[in-house]
Each structure stands twice: as C-alpha cells, then as structure tokens.
Target: DNA topoisomerase I
Amino acid sequence: VYKALTAASLLGLWICNSALTVSDVALSRWQEEKSDDGVKWKQLEHQGPYFAPPYEPLPEDVQFYYDGQPMKLSLATEEIATFYAKMLDHEYTTKVVFQENFFNDWRKEMTSEERKKIKHLEKCGFGEMHKYFVDKNETRKALPKEEKQKLKEGADKIQEEFGYCILDGHREKIGNFKTEPPGLFRGRGDHPKMGMLKKRIMPEDVIINCSKDSKIPAPPPGHKWKEVRFDNKVTWLASWTENIQSSIKYIMLNPSSKLKGEKDWQKYEVARRLKGVVNKIRSQYRADWKSKEMKKRQRSVALYFIDKLALRAGNEKEEGETADTVGCCSLRVEHIKLHPKLDGQEYVVEFDFLGKDSIRYYNKVPVEKPVFKNLQLFLENKDDGDDLFDRLSTNTLNKHLQDLMDGLTAKVFRTYNASITLQEQLKALTDSEDNVAAKLLSYNRANRAVAILCNHQRSTPKTFEKSMQNLQTKIDGKKEQLTDARVELKRAKADLKAKKDVRSKANVEKKKKLIEKIKEQLAKLEIQATDKEENKQIALGTSKLNYLDPRISVAWCKKFGVPIEKIYNKMQREKFAWAIDMTDEDFEF
DNA sequence: GGTCTGACTTGACGAAAGTTAC
DNA sequence: GTAACTTTCGTCAAGTCAGACC
Model:
C-alpha cells in the first residue's frame, strides 16, 4: 500500500482506499519517512513571483489640490496620493490614526519643496483624483464583451506562466504567485499602524527558493534577486520582508497541491488521535484543578477553556505594534466577569474580549465549581489590565500538551472539537427520508453549530434584508400559484365528473402533478429562507475549509445520496481531493 | 525557563465571476 | 441584453507553533 501511495502521489493521483486502517498505515509510514530529515521536496522549479505593475501616472487634467490650488506632484508623491484618493469613501480614511500614519509616511517620500508646502492633510484635495478612479472603474466594468475577453486572456496567460511550478516531477498550482502591490496598510480593528505606506516590492527584496539543478528563474530585466537559495526543508518558493511589521511574506503552493493536501490530512489524523486520549486528558486536567502548584492550576483551567470553548491559544503580542486582541492564555482580568448565580444558573463566567481579527467573543458559560473557585483565586489582588493566567504561556502549555500526546498543541483541540461536533450533529439531524434540500439544511445546521462554537462571524451582508425580502416575495408567489393550481384541479375534477372521458382524466392527473411540483418548490424555498435567516451573521466557510475533516462530509454525502457538489464548490473539491478519493460511507472521525 | 523569529495555518473581506430576474 | 443579486475566490492580515539562542 505504501508503494502504491508513493507511486500514485508521484503521478499526482490520490489513492482510492476504503479501509481506514490501511490509510492510517500509509500515513504513519509517510510521516516516518518525512520526519527523518525534514526534507519537503527533492526538486522544485518555478518562474519566481509576478510583480505588481509599475505606477501609471495620472492624466494631465486630473489634479491634486492644496489649499484649493492645483499642484503638480512628483511621481512618487503622486503615487502615494493616489493610494489615499482611492480609499476616500472607505471608513478607514475617517480615522485619525489612519490619517496621521498616512500623512507621516507620505511626507517622508515627498521632495523637500513638496514637504515645505504640504503641511496639513485637511488642506489636501483628493476629490478629482478619487473621481478619476471611480470613473475608470466604471468604464472598465462597462467594457464590451470582446475587450473583457482580451483582458481575461491576458490574465490567463500570466497565470499560465507564473502560476505553476514543478514539484518532484509534477506540475502544481501556486497559491499566491503575485507580489503584493504597494498601498496603504489596512490593519484590522484598532490597529496602531493603519494607514502606513506599504512599499513596492522589488526583485532586490525577493529571495528565491528552488532546486540547485533547476532552471533558476530570471529576475526582470535590469534587476537582481536579493538571494537565490536551495532549501528543501521549507515549502515556500519565494519570500520578502514587508516593511510595516517587518514580517516575512511567502509565495507558497495552492491548497490543491499534494504537499498541502498531505499536510491537511496529517492535521486531521492528529485530531483523530486526540479523540482516543481526550478522556484521559480531561480527567487529568480536572485533577490538576486541585493541584498545590499555581502553575498547574492555571494551566488546567486554561486547557479546560480551550477544550470546552474552542478558544485559541493566545500568544503574547508586542504592545503598540498590533491591535489589542487576546486568546486564552493572554486573557486579562477585564475580559471575564464571575457570576456565582445568573439567570437561574450557577458559576457562570461571562467572557467579553476581542479575539483574532478583533472579532468580539461574548459568551456566558456555566462552568464546573472548581473552575469557578480557581478563577476567583486567580483574580485576587489583580487589576483590570493584569493577566488572568500570569503563570502561563502558550509555550509552556504546548510543551505540556506535547507530553500528553505526540503532536498535540492547543489548536488541535479546536480541530478535534469542530470535527467531532460536525459528526455528532450530522448524526442527530439527518433524516434519511428527507429530500436533498432538507438534508442540506441539516448539513448547514451542523456546520453552523461548529461555526458558532469557533465564533466564526461575518458582518451581515449589505444586501441581506433585501434578498430576504425577495425570497419572501418568491414564497408568496409560490403560495399564490398553489392556490390557483388547487382551483384548477377542482375545476378539472368537475370536468371529469361531467364528461368522464380520457382527456379530462389525464387533465386531472396533470393538475395533481403540478400541485405536487409547486408544493415541492415551495418547501425548498421555505428551507432556503430558514437557512438564510439562521446564517445572517455566521460564516460557514472558515470551519469548512480549516476545521472540519472533509472525510466526515464525504462519508455523509455518500451515505445519504447527496451529490458532493452540493456541499463543496470547485475549489473546495480540489482542496479536498485526497478525502473525496479515499473515503467511503462508513468513515468515522 | 523566556524571547525572538521563521514557517506555516487561519481568517474576514471585497472584487470578480456566475446566475437569475426582468 | 442587462441590471441585480449571489457565490466564489483571491488577498493579505493575523494568528499558532517550533526551534534557535540566551
């Protein structure tokens, strides 16, 4: 089996394999082989990144104004001005931090004459430039079909040339093969660096990673790479350091690639191993709630939260460099409230904090008594801004988890709990007698339970109310159709009674069928409306893509005769190709 | 142990593409 | 045929985690 797997993989195929134990064996062998020296590939060849197009100067008649007077800007200054002008109707430009950061960085790039003159942002007139870009956008949208086709062909050609690489003998799609264009940094939430200038990436900034014996990509004419290296222990093809946080950005493979697929598979296998030991781990952390060591108590309470509430680990962050957000280990006193009694429940913890992407986490959770008592203890003599778990770091937590199970880290609990919830919910909600639409509602509801657990929110779509209304109109229309059809059936029946001929009989049957069809359509619409309403502020995509073992979904589809296309779109089917191929209806997470 | 940093995953958002309604 | 709406997908920011170093 292992040989077959390797061979199949080399061909870019996924082994079809129904026996789970067999795939387990294949995986562990693969892991063994992979872990020997950390080698990720033997051969890698690609074209390097596709660079953002150079700045196109504004036409003569589009002007920047200062203090009401038109002012010709140097090219570099003009380019940065256009970044701001383009964003004029975005909320960002109303924020003081954004304005100040932008203005600061902009002035740094000005010529000394410009800097002497341009001293206040509020005297800058970007309006004409803004209008120019809005118009340009509309013109592009209104382009005739053939022109659009030409643009598309141009993009396809670039994708074809830069969008693929050769990895260990097969052609693989690259995820992000373009460098990020220059612009103004858009941090999320209350980000202290929002509005700062994100500089243009040049070939001189880029490190290329490929095989020694491959055709090394040529830098654009007149340029050089920062470095060319041959590191087969990492998976990236190119990288550069970005100037806002000085973090490294990478060009990597598409999720559909073998490399990423195998990694994904491995992730779910780790989560499945957790399933086997989770009860033991749970009794252990319960025991630790009574430990004499403060460190252990904090660790065990934090782990309880991570397990029960699917919180993120919560690494420390550098103050003032990013938005103030937290996860489990970085929770502060101000983020929880303890209620001995609340709404008829005992020992309730009220969480209120900003998590990743500054998404608010708000939850009132009844906890076990020892947890509550411990929290009271942790809070003693602390101020709002102090760490709740002052003796705990994600590092020590993960080291502890590693001791409990090989490969176990805090985030595995999120994967495990998400996947097991999906499996349980699907079991509880699916009725094999239902039609496909109703089964899909059950699937979405199961998916939704996970999204709620993981706190995956979305802002209500701008068109939500309207599209809800439209759907309601459709439903009303269908109802009317149904009433009409019923009247017609009555009429047809009366006709049959009077005439008693074949034609009238056929007509009655026809009307009956029509009613059935309309009823079905109506039910489908009503299900759609329910689904939509329940999904108003919940994002299903993130859990589907990152937390739910796809084999659960594939098995469910097979078991209940739901076409896989109903739950996974094209991209998702490509990403989960490994699971679609190997899973049969009996798969258990 | 703590800190720093490189590599990799996760995440919301919005533009583009696709579909439906008129 | 096109406007209106929905879905998909690319983008890039923001996390997690491990290993090096002290």
User: Anything to note?
Assistant: Residues 188, 234-236, 239, 247-248, 250, 252, 263, 267, 312, 316, 356-357, 359, 393, 395-396, 411, 456-459, 470, 539, 541-542, 545-547 of chain A lie near DNA strand B (CB under 10 Å from a C1').
